[in-house]
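Open question from group meeting: does this chain pack into something compact, or does most of it stay loose? Before anyone orders reagents, we agreed to write out a predicted structure and look at it together. Recording both the input and the output here so the notebook holds the full record.
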Amino acid sequence: RHSPKSTLRCSPLWRPLFGRLSRRHKLVRYDARGTGLSDWNLDAVTFEDFVSDLETVVDSLGLERFSLLGISQGAAVAIAYAARHPERVDKMVLHGGYAQGRRRRESVTHEEQADAFLTLLRHGWGDEHSPFMQAFSSIYLPRGTSEQIRWFSDLQRVSTTGENAIRLRSACDLIDVKDLLPQIRTPTLVTHSRHDHVAP
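Structure tokens returned:
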């Protein structure tokens, strides 16, 4: 485990959602590889690693059957897990997700967006005063207050390095679970925010 400079706690950006989810249910949330309390020294960063990490968390907790929430790239991880382990996932909720990363959508626009995101990460990660961070936060928090943008910057600084963020984002851009979709038999609720500028 990596120990960031400050003790990680639930970010004010995520606290309302996690609070509601854990009020009546047991909520298990893990830090993806290269982030939070997970090891920040990354040997490999692939989508297969993301799925393997979820399998490891589930097995280590001895979870037999459970509901799975996947947000953003976590939706694709949930899809891949449910396709491999249909007997363990009783329900899924997928929010703001995608089946194909930007570099798998066969679109020049999406390729350019992938490059632009990496540039924003490279030059603005965790720096609330950077114009690159301001552009980045306007995508994720289009109506964010200055306080929320500061929370977003703080979360970036304590959650991982800019270099790891680039490697993780690059792996997400290569996601492709489109062929797994017909295999899913788990009852699934798919939700998506209007005007989402991150996932189509």
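Observations to bring back to the group:
Confidence is low (pLDDT under 50) at residues 1-8.
The CA atoms of residues 30 and 144 lie 25 Å apart.
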